[in-house]
Amino acid sequence: MYPLSQLNILLGFFASLYLSLVSAQRECAPQICSSCVPDGLINAPGIGFDLGTSYGTAAVRFHNGSTINIAKIAGDDEYTTLMQRYHTSPRPPPGYSAGNLREELREAWSSLKRDLNEWRGLPASPEAGILSSMLQQLRYRTEEKLGQKISSVGVTVPKLAGLYSYEICDALRYAGLKDVLIDSLNEIVIEPNAAFAGYGYGLCKRYTDILECEDEEEAMRMRRVIAIEFSEKTLAVALMITRTARSPYLESSEVSWDLGWGKRGEEVEVFWRDVTDRIRGVVDRFGKKVDTLVLLGDKAMEERFLAAVKDALKEFVVTEGEDAIMQVKKNDVDTVFIAARGTAELAKRNQESAKGCVEPEYCHHRGDDGKPPESREL
Predict the structure, then answer these.
(1) Which of these, 155, 209, 170, lies nearest to 340 by C-alpha position?
(2) HSE value, Cβ hemisphere, 13 Å, CA-based, for 219
(3) CA distance 359 to 371
């Protein structure tokens, strides 16, 4: 016989074990959806818009798996100035004024003005109007190519300190659009993340089944990613640690407006040395070697830039076999559209997938011809 004290300890142990198992089972047990994802969403193309620092791009991912580039729209002076202001003169984030009555009143008044402007049929703010203009141009070109109206898109933007999700949502509303990714992820998809997906990294195959997808993602190797954007206006370097394109961890990000392609000037060698040093400095502060290189931007495949990247990363990149630049070239990506293409892929997957639940088995039924039935909505 066990002494009473030991018996209590033993019973407590088994009770704790039982409760932990039950709790895990309850937490992990998938909720079954009450209905199926409608055919209209499943078959609809995924549309991706990239609002870059100096231009916007659009791409479409079709249900057959193909992806096409739609358009590149150059940003006007208003647009590029706004993008630079988001970085160099960021406004405080929403909720910053907590505890300060004067700032709380100022923030409340700003929010009220945005609401009043929208009620009057105007952009919520001048900034939203500028962003909306780019979105409307991308929308027009996409609708022209598809031959149909669109209302839902995925949007990606650079990682800029003062560009918040509410600004994008304001611009989307004025453009008559809805961002399916903000609705799902509750945050803006940033360009390094979108480009990572555009390269085909971190994407599960069975994405319509949340459990199957999570199992695939769990088996993916952890990547230390350096994403470098090079365009007319900017050089941007971001470092991420991630397995999956759905939820990367952004370790650090730096945007340089003095090192865009248009800033080369007469002292070209000095410029390229500064580009090399800037990239090297960011990854050096990271303190770890990286194993995956993602390039994006309309000037990212310039040979002189590639040489600068190779020089900057020679001590910091660990790859299997080929060097990082050769791997990028082998992927044969279009760095101008890669972020828009990745966003289109993420948007398409989001549209086809059930949210927070697993579809009933009958949702996966297909006819003898392999095509979905006319309607899967119950």
Answers:
(1) 155
(2) 7
(3) 18
- According to DSSP, residue 176 is labeled T
Long-range contacts of 304-313 (CB under 8 A, 24+ apart): 304/272, 305/230, 305/261, 305/275, 307/272, 308/272, 308/275, 308/276, 308/279, 309/228, 309/279, 311/276, 312/275, 312/276, 312/277, 312/279, 312/280, 312/283, 313/226, 313/279, 313/280, 313/283
Q: Which helix (H) or strand (E) is 216 found in, with range? A: helix 210-219
CA-to-CA distance for 96 and 106, rounded, in angstroms?
11
- Please report where in the chains the tokens 């999700």 appear, as a residue: 165
121 dihedral zone (left: phi>0; alpha: psi -120 to 50; beta): left
Asked whether the beta carbons of 59 and 69 are under 8 A apart, the reply is yes
* Cα–Cα dist 153/165, whole Å: 15
| Tens-place pLDDT, residues 246-289 | 877 888 889 999 999 999 988 899 999 999 999 999 998 888 88
Sign of CA dihedral 213, 216, 218, 224: negative
Residue with tokens 């080369």: 264
